[in-house]
Each structure stands twice: as C-alpha cells, then as structure tokens.
Design a protein that fits this description.
The structure is a homodimer of 109-residue chains. Chain A is mainly α. Chain A contains five helices and two strands; from the N terminus they run ααααββα. Chain A binds a DNA duplex (30 and 30 nucleotides) through helix 1 and helix 4.
DNA sequence: TTGAATACCTTGTATCGCAAGGTACTAACA
DNA sequence: TGTTAGTACCTTGCGATACAAGGTATTCAA
C-alpha cells in the first residue's frame, strides 16, 4: 500500500501555491519558507525550493532583495510582484474549484 | 503568466484521489471515469488514466471485471479492493490535512 | 587560519501527466 | 464476405518537477 507516495503526490502540486500564500504575508528567504511551511505541515526540501523560486522569479511572479544577516551570509528575500499577486488570485480560484470537485465526488449519490 | 501550468500542477496530485473517490461510489470503466470526472470539472486524458489504473491495480488497490457492452467490445470495470478502501480512508485524512495547511497559510497573521 | 554555521545553487534520478499513435473487438452495410 | 465506423484498451516518447546528494561562498569565532 503506497499511500505515502500518493499523499506526497497530492501535496506536490500544492507547493507553488503554498509558497506564494506565504509570500503574500511577508517577504521570506529560503530557510524561512522551509521552516514556516514545516509549521503548516508541508514538507519541502532545499533541492525543490531553490529551482522553484528561480522559476517563479523568471516568470516574473517573484522579485527579491538582498538583506544582511546578523550572523552568516546575506539572505535573498523573495517578494510577490504585481503579476505574482494577480497569478495568486487565480490560484485562489483554482483552489476553490478543486475543493468543490472533491466535495462533489465525495457526496454525489 | 503561466497560471494554467501551475493550476494543472495543483490538479495533478489530486487525480488518483478523485478517481478512487469515484470508484467508491460504483464500479466504472475508463470512459465512465473520464466523463464523470469531466462533470466534476476535473479533466483527465486517456493516456493518463490507463497507466494510472494499471498502477493502482498492480498495487492491489483496484480490481476489475469484464462486462459485456450492448454495443462495442467488452469493458473493464474497476472496483475498489479492501486495501483500496483502506488506502482511500488514509487519503481522506491527507486531504483534510492539506485543506488545514492551506487554510492556515491563508489566514495566518 | 582553520572550522563550524549559514545560505545559495546544481546535477542526476525517478515519477508522472499528456499527446500521439497503435491494436482489437463489434455492428452495420454494401 | 469485405469494408467502414464506432468503441475500448494500451504503449511510446517527451517534458515538467520533486528530491537526494553534493558543491560553492560568506561570516564569525576560536
């Protein structure tokens, strides 16, 4: 029974959405994101996160700024761009739709 | 803005779950599944569905039986096995968890 | 100057959805 | 009997992406 596999599949597609939800609240750098998603019970690896952030940046949905750290090297804080906010609004709608779909499939006669 | 890509990514992981939800209601063959998921606004292609059904069958979550059709060749009706029901119960829990995660990320201060 | 901690990034592998194409069975009709 | 249309099942090749592992760079303290 490979439920774990399916479960991770279910979460996979949500990653991008969840990261953008996080960034809507406030700018974050990579370790922030990993930690705060972990608090929300969404596990994400470094090797997943960095390419994903780069992709969103390349697509114009994210920007970033360097900020000094009190200890250690400077950090890349990512922020949602205007296009990012628009895209996120559409993803909110997609999320609602998926919820409706599952609700429908669970309760249909 | 590649929202469509992300949107389809979000739906991807849900496919397996949605198909098992459908089969919990009643046995279906491939075209049934495609059509009924379409009614629930979840699009799935043949080339996606057949390998997925084979995988679930191989993992012991689904079984099937051949049924004659009034017109055309016989159909392979898939049904949930006992293990399938157990796995689906766990996926129900995963789904609840994902909903909580998104709710948390949307409303966190 | 060396080591530890932190932060960013890349490479290789496996999985999976999808488009396109292929095979097989049935029925209707010339 | 052949042929065509419709239905159903399945496979192949490709692209996208999560993840594990490994690599580079900066900072600070001993």
């Amino acid at each position: 029974m490979n439920t774990d596999n399916t479960k991770s599949q279910m979460r996979k597609g949500m990653l991008e959405y969840c990261i953008m939800l996080l960034l809507r609240q406030q700018p974050c750098y990579a370790n922030d994101i990993i930690q705060r998603l972990h608090e929300a019970e969404m596990i994400v690896m470094e090797g997943t996160l960095y390419p994903l952030l780069s992709r969103l940046k390349r697509d114009g949905l994210l920007g970033y700024e360097w900020r000094e750290s009190t200890q250690g090297p400077p950090r890349k804080y990512y922020v949602l761009t205007d296009d990012g906010h628009k895209a996120l609004a559409q993803l909110d709608a997609s999320w609602e739709e998926i919820q409706r779909t599952v609700y429908f499939l669970k309760n249909e006669k």
